[in-house]
Design a protein that fits this description.
The protein has helices at residues 31-42, 46-57; strands at 14-18, 26-30, 68-70. With 77 residues, it is an alpha+beta fold.
């Protein structure tokens, strides 16, 4: 396993490690948990936290091992 890149302050939102052939392993975070952390720690409402997260956290590229952010998948009936 390669060196994993963590995002400061979001350890509670880590859901696992992902890997791909030919790429470095990377951490996977729950998008919703990240937003909840921002709402709690920085006293933002949901929309503010989601906008901040999308632009400043999910939008940051730090190389091949940049973390990924997942949302729960529910198949429509």
């Amino acid at each position: 396993m390669s060196e994993l890149i963590k995002i400061d302050g979001f350890d509670a939102a880590i859901v696992g490690v992902a890997s791909r052939i030919g790429s470095a392993d990377f951490l996977v975070y729950s998008r919703e948990k990240c937003i909840e952390i921002l709402m709690s720690d920085d006293e933002m409402n949901y929309d503010e936290a989601a906008e901040f997260f999308d632009f400043n956290v999910a939008g940051a590229y730090v190389g091949e091992a940049t973390p990924a952010f997942m949302e729960e998948y529910e198949e429509e009936q």
